[in-house]
Amino acid sequence: MSIRIVTFDVYNTLIRYTDKLRSEVASNVAKYFNKLGYEVSYNAVLEFYLAVEREVKAARTSSMALSPPAENVRQLLMKVAKKYGIRPSDRYISDLLNVISDTVINSVNMSPIEGASEALAIFKEEGWRVGLVSNVVFWPGKASRAVLNRFGLEKYIDYGVFADEVGYAKPHPYIFDTAVTMLAEGREPDVVMHVGDNFAEDFAGALMSGAVAVLYDEEGEYIRGAGSPLEAIKCRGYVIRKTMDSTLVPHMLDKC
């Protein structure tokens, strides 16, 4: 029996993650310290949050290194503590992980990408095994699962892999291979396809793992007026402007 597998990145592929959410997280972190009697400013927290996020993403791209959420929150805490004379503690790390996760799970600044639910539904209806391959920064995979469930997307997912759960981050092939192994259930897939918005982590990572890579390029940085989907690498790499366009790629693969 044939099996086809498609995996998706979560943030800015299925769920929109914008500066509004970053600001909301920074505000709630500042309020946490304010309640403890520290005059921590929102602007300082946001600056440190963005700095740690940049550092984590740069390390993933350059060395495929995983920095788990607790470590990233610790780095954020250390920056805040140094500026405001706060003595860091494990309790602060635990509390901040909860503050950030709760903010993300309940945020009004989270929303599904247009067409995400419809695309997942089509793949399921056409018999594909549907999975997730997603990195993490400040909150664990279980928080992302709660977000997906909140928006009704979790029901389409057969198996999801988050970097903190497997010890490897995209673009490392291991995280892709883990998802494929679990989704294939001992069978050899006819096709494996990954859809994501980050060129290094999703597109290059998928190619390194042997999957067909589909880059979600909402802003048209790579397509620049061309039709969507665009075949960027013959039978291996495609670029789309809408998540829904990922459902058209299999028809292009049929011609390969």
TrEMBL record:
<comment type="similarity">
    <text>Belongs to the HAD-like hydrolase superfamily.</text>
</comment>
<dbReference type="Pfam" id="PF00702">
    <property type="entry name" value="Hydrolase"/>
</dbReference>
<protein>
    <submittedName>
        <fullName>2-haloalkanoic acid dehalogenase</fullName>
    </submittedName>
</protein>
<dbReference type="InterPro" id="IPR036412">
    <property type="entry name" value="HAD-like_sf"/>
</dbReference>
<dbReference type="InterPro" id="IPR006439">
    <property type="entry name" value="HAD-SF_hydro_IA"/>
</dbReference>
<dbReference type="GO" id="GO:0016787">
    <property type="term" value="F:hydrolase activity"/>
</dbReference>
<keyword id="KW-0378">Hydrolase</keyword>
<dbReference type="InterPro" id="IPR023214">
    <property type="entry name" value="HAD_sf"/>
</dbReference>
<dbReference type="InterPro" id="IPR051540">
    <property type="entry name" value="S-2-haloacid_dehalogenase"/>
</dbReference>
